[in-house]
Each structure stands twice: as C-alpha cells, then as structure tokens.
Amino acid sequence: MGLRAKFNLAVLGVFLLGFAGAWLFLEQRFLATARTEVLQNARIMLSAANAVRGFTARETGPLITAAATQMGRFEPASVPSYAAQTNFHAVQAEFRDYTYKEAALNPTNPRDRATDWETDFIRSFRDRAELTELIGERLTPTGPVLTLARPLTVSSAQCLVCHSTPDRAPAAMVRSYGATNGFGWQMNETVGAQLVSVPMALAIRNAQTNLHATMAILFGIFVGIMLMLNCLLHLLVVRPVVRLSQIATAVSLGDTVAGDFEHGGRDEIASLAAAFTRMRRSLDSAMKMLSA
Q: pTM score, two decimals?
C-alpha cells in the first residue's frame, strides 16, 4: 500500500469518526432548537388565550351577563373560558393542527370534558400543587405534537356562584346545561387545565433540512481539504520520493550516469536529497579509488 493510500485511509478514518460525532451532536442541537421554537409558539398561543379570558372577565362578560339577565337568558359568551376557546376556533380554521382546550374533569359544557390523556395532565396538577406548567409530547396520525398545560384552579368565590350547587347557580344556566354537570367545585381545587397543542412535524422537518445542509457543507469542505492535501502530498512528498527512488535504483544497478536529484528549499525532502547526493558522491569516489 502506497504512502498516499495510507495517508488517505488515515484521514478518512478520522473524518468518518468526526463526521458521525458531529452528526449526532448537531442532530440533537437542531431538534432541541426545533422543540424550543414549538414550545415558544405554544406559550404565545396560551398568552393570547389568557388575554381573551382576561378581557372577557373585565370588559365584555359583565355587560353580556347584565343584558342576558334582563332577558332571562344565559349567554355562554359571558364566560371567559367559552370566549377564549371560541376565539381560538377561528384560528384553528386556518391552522387545523393547532388546538386550545380548557379541559375539566366535571365541566358544565360536555364538550369541555377531559379525554384520557388530558385527564393525566389534570391529575398531575391535582397531585402536585406546586406544578404551574407541564409539557408533554404525543404521537398523532399527523405526526408528533407538543402539549403545554397549565392548571385551572378555583381561586375566586365568583366561580362558585355557578359551580358549587345547582340551587346557587343562575337558573338560566341550569336550564341550558342541566343540574348534573359542573357542580361540586371547591375553593382552591384544581378542576381542569388549559391545554395548547402544537404540531412538531414542520419544525422537525426544518431541523432535519438544516442538519442535512450543514452536513453537506462539512462534507464539501472535507472533500476540498482532501483534494488540496493530496495535491500537496503529491507535489511535496510523493513525486520527490518517487524520483529519488528511481535514481537510487539506477545507482544500485551500476548506472553511473544517472542524473542528480535536485530539490530546493529547507524542508525534510531537501535534507534527504542533500544527504543522498553526498552519499552518491562518496560512493562514486570510493568506486574510483577501488578501480585505481
């Protein structure tokens, strides 16, 4: 095996190890960045939902409630939870895989009843009161989805007006939803959770695209470096050594007219050429002395 082949194999081995290590490291970094971006989107969505809830509770809710009471009706739009979820439905019409839900174990509106996986979040909040946020990932038919959850806790006595017992609740609400669901809540009880779900498929695809582009650039740089190193190896090492070997072979076979090996510079090859020239001249002198 020639010097060039050994050199290329050694460099290739080092490159493959480094390439594999860089791939694993960058893949984790790109995926972590993608997850952070998805989580940030979920937090923005949750903040928007809370803004709607707050505006409804402070501004529009009291006005709607007063008007509905005069007419003997119950208007769901006066409820912050209903307003936030209904508002998000308009967003979901364009972004179908994004969801926002205020799930409860015992809701007034049956559509807000928690599913099995949503119940897991709620029970975690109920079991650990210190938790203020949970993040989970699950696989859906459209790909992986990240869910950001925050607890819904009864923190105001105003909530208990509608959710303590049917006899205390507004009669119009009881007529609309019945006297079975959404009652029995207690102060400081975690009754549900806000859940924002954001698809991760696009972010993961972008991360993989960026990873492949980065690794392609690294591979291109490696190929360029290898070509340059091989050119330098050929010009500075292989070609001089091959020429020196040819002259040494000729001299060993008795060729006294073989040309001298000239190599300028002060590198190791130049030192080897100078030493070979001195050895050859010493050999020529010795042969002449023997002939005489």
A: 0.76
